[in-house]
Structures are given as C-alpha cells and as structure tokens.
Amino acid sequence: MARTLEDLIYERMTAWPELLNKLAKYKGKAAVFYQNAPADTGGWKGAQQYPRIDYAVDMQANPERQTSGKVTINIWSIDSAVMPEEIEPEARKALCGIFMTPEGEPPYCLAWHRTDNFSADNEAERGEQIIGASMQFDVFAFPNQITSDPDPILAMNHFTKEWEPTATVIGHDRLDEYFEPQANEPVFYFRLVSLETSDETNTVAWMNGVIAGHVFAPTAEERLRWIRYLTDTLATRGEVIMLDTSPMRIRRLSADTGLDQLSQGQIRIQMRFGILRRAIISPLMHIGM
C-alpha cells in the first residue's frame, strides 16, 4: 500500500525518541492520532490518555512557490502531566529540516509557522484541566521541473551533480522516504522562474530566462558556504553546457542568504540559450529543373 504524507508524518512523530518519552501510550505506541483521538472508552484500557497529539493535513493547489498545504498538530495535556510547552519543541525538531517523499509524489518539507496555546472548556476524567498547544506548519513541494531538451533545469541538475557528486539534486537523485541534508552532503533544487523569447535568426530562437536555486544544509553557515561555492563556480565558468552540447550563457548571477530556502531560493541565475529551428523547406525546392 502506497504511503502518504500523512503516514510519513505519523511514523516520524511516533519514532522520535523525545516524543515517545513524553507522550502517553496507546496500544504500545506513542499517542499520536490522525485527525481525532479515540474515545475515552476506545482501547485505552484505563491507561493514562495525556499528553497526546492529533494532527491533520490539508493539501491545496500550488501556485508558484506558495504553500502546497497546511499541517495542524494539536498537543493535548492536563495540568498534572507533561506540559505542552515541553512537547512543542520536540514536534518541531521531528518534522522540520527533513524531506519526506511519499510514494509517487514529490518531496515535501514542513516549515513551522506559529503555535497558539489553548485550554479546553471540558475537563479530563479525573477532573484535571485540559490544556494544549496548536501548531501550524506550511507544506512546500519540490516537484520535478524537467521538460524537454534543451532544458535549462536538466542542464543545471547535471552540472551540479558532476560538479559536486556528494550533493543530492532534487530532480536528478531519488530521495528516500526521509532525507535530511548534511553539512558535507547538501541538497540543491532548481526551478524555472521565467522564460521568454528574446530574438530569432533563421536557425536559432534565443531564449532568456531566470532560474531559482534552493540550497539546503543543516545550518545557516553551511548553507552560506555551499551558496558561495556554487555561485563562485558559475561566475568563473560563465556558462553551463546543455545536453545537446550547446551553451547556456549566464548573463547575471545573484545570491541572497536572507531569502528563504523553502519558498524563494537563495540564488537567481539569469541565463540565455538557443533552440535550433527546424529547416524551412520551400515547395519550390521540389520542382525539377
């Protein structure tokens, strides 16, 4: 059975040691539930029911680099158990900074947005006050953008992989269900921001475009190091050879480490490449002399 993003989130939280130690247990596993927890009489068998977590995933249409969906995680506890404030940081650690790839879908990343505390009007079974925290995460997808040759994204993917074989390039490499960037094994993702016709000759249609580059590493310092390494390489070479052996010229290159690696990408590559036009055959060429 294909594993969904909901499944991967569940397994990630129930396997996270710090959450396992802080949450109640349900049927031998950490008390994490999709959408709703079971009723008080539904399988708890008199065991402690708090703290526990329920979560929901709401996937949406994906306009250009807007969020692909939302994940809501609710932490429920009582005033005599582990406080939600102790559980919330561990849930963030478990779910952020990692790529999750369901079967047949692109990789996804979760980005924490906000946390709101709350208290329930009703009370737990023994009269304790129910308190909690509601966490909101944005979901970002990283779909494969490769189309047909000559393809600037395909060219950047191949260039980056040959330039740094230890790197993982989304769209070139296949990611495991869970994949976390490392200091010496960064993740790169390239996407086409814009593409337009520039000018034409009898043989070539020239295209101008912009590529966004997303660089992932565990810390800001490590991301900066890889951003600088890549941009310096591209600046000195001035071009990337496409799969049809034609050059993709780099006309302008910029990097901003203050931009978000999930939504915007830190690198912008203004490039120009040519598409060979098919020969135009005049009907007169078929008329015998």
Key structural traits:
alpha+beta, STM4215-like, 15 strands, 5 helices, single chain, 6-stranded mixed β-sheet, 289 residues, 5-stranded mixed β-sheet, elongated
Q: Overview of this structure, please?
A:
The protein has five helices and 15 strands. It folds into two domains: 5-141, STM4215-like, CATH 3.30.2000; 152-276, Phage tail protein-like (STM4215-like, 2-Layer Sandwich). It is an alpha+beta fold. The strands form four sheets. Strands 9-11-12-15-14-13 form a six-stranded mixed sheet.
Please outline the helices and strands.
Blueprint lengths: L4 H11 L1 H6 L2 E2 L2 E2 L1 E3 L17 E8 L9 E10 L5 H12 L3 E2 L7 E16 L5 E13 L10 H12 L4 E2 L8 E2 L7 E14 L3 E13 L3 H18 L1 E3 L5 E9 L11 E10 L13
Parallel strand pairs: 3-4, 9-11
Antiparallel strand pairs: 1-2, 4-5, 5-8, 6-10, 7-8, 11-12, 12-15, 13-14, 14-15
Helix content: 10-25%
What gross morphology would you assign?
A: elongated
Low-confidence stretches: none
Termini gap: 69 Å
Q: What is the beta-strand fraction?
A: 35-45%
* Name of the CATH architecture of the largest domain: 2-Layer Sandwich
Helix/strand-derived category reads alpha+beta
Rounded average pLDDT: 89
Describe the largest sheet: 6 strands, mixed
Tally of separate domains: 2
Spatial order of the strands forming the largest sheet: 9-11-12-15-14-13
**Number of DSSP-assigned strands:** 15
If helices are DSSP runs of H or I spanning 4 or more residues, what is the number of helices? 5
CATH topology of the largest domain: STM4215-like
